[in-house]
Design a protein that fits this description.
Oligomer: single chain
Strand content: 5-15%
Order of helices and strands: HHHHHHHHHEEEHHEEE
Distance between the termini: 48 Å
Length: 316
């Protein structure tokens, strides 16, 4: 859109003239690019009598010898229009771009740095859906300006839907009269979201047994628990966890928790009295928890898993 020369140029930013070797320093302000200046520089380059002189002007401004079609649109500036995209700036580019750069920098620091990164990455907690791996190990500058000038990043990012916001585009072409389209899009997008929610709930009901759930899983409303261990007494728990602050006075704290929790959810306490446990009372530990819930951010039916295993795929 800005028609600059890209990452290998002297000034690779489409918004300002930050030199290529100073992009990591976001504390320094640099002159802003403008469509008017780019147009003037291109005109000056094309007026040169030799290709070498023309190339010198274009190279100094990191421009291509192409007229930008967006210059024809009144009251606009393609450089000011370029915005920070949080989808591609971070998550969407991690594997192919950010992580590749990290590895290059770490390798430059030598074998000790590589070993340290390897160790730290291997210690990353395991979690379902997290692609865990062992590693060998300047638009951000303008994000505040974008928020101040254009509002929240959701207004100018691609997170809604890539590929030109496909569903909204199809709705616009197929279900609107092309006049006052905003309320029409909102209505149809709402209906689509409701339909997806219903479909996902039906899929959950029709789905076969979850292979991630243990065979002994017990279903309690929207919660499943499994991987049940042998009952163990409070005295044994406190003995095995001696010195761990998380289990200090565990029996008493657990009783107090239940005494507050049960009435809060309209369950009566036994005999209406504060719960108390004897040190030889037993608990049945479970190492698996699955919770179904409705995601309020995107209206989808989701599930979260929590496992407690001292040796999960060979790792803690």
């Amino acid at each position: 859109m800005a028609l600059i020369r890209g990452l290998q140029a002297l000034y690779p930013c489409p918004i300002c003239f930050v030199p290529w070797n100073e992009q990591s320093d976001i504390s320094t302000e640099h002159p802003k690019r403008t469509g008017q200046d780019s147009k003037a520089n291109l005109k000056a380059a094309r007026a040169c009598k030799t290709a070498a002189d023309r190339e010198a002007i274009l190279k100094e401004n990191s421009l291509r010898d192409v007229e930008n079609v967006f210059w024809r649109i009144g009251n606009t500036d393609p450089h000011a229009t370029c915005s920070f995209d949080r989808l591609h700036a971070y998550g969407g580019l991690w594997t192919d771009h950010l992580f590749t750069q990290i590895k290059l920098r770490v390798i430059e620091k030598g074998r000790n740095a590589v070993a340290k990164i390897d160790k730290q990455m291997s210690l990353m907690p395991r979690w379902r859906g997290l692609n865990h791996f062992d590693a060998v190990m300047s638009l951000v500058k303008h994000v505040l300006e974008d928020i101040e000038n254009k509002g929240a990043t959701r207004n100018f990012g691609t997170k809604i839907s890539e590929s030109m916001h496909g569903p909204l585009r199809e709705t616009y072409h197929r279900l609107t009269n092309f006049k006052n389209v905003t309320p029409q899009l909102e209505k149809h997008d709402h209906r689509r979201a409701v339909g997806l929610l219903i479909r996902e709930q039906l899929n959950v009901l029709d789905a076969p047994d979850d292979p991630d759930c243990p065979e002994d899983a017990e279903i309690l409303s929207n919660i499943s628990i499994g991987s049940k261990l042998r009952p163990v007494s409070f005295s044994v728990i406190e003995e095995k966890t001696y010195g761990d602050a998380s289990f200090t006075r565990f029996r008493i704290r657990f009783a107090n928790f239940l005494s507050d929790f049960l009435p809060a959810y309209d369950y009566n306490l036994p005999d209406g009295k504060q719960i108390q446990f004897d040190k030889e009372d037993t608990l049945a530990p479970f190492q698996f928890l699955k919770v179904y819930y409705h995601h309020l951010g995107n209206w989808t039916s989701s599930a979260d898993y929590l496992r407690c295993n001292p040796n999960f795929h060979g790792q803690p």
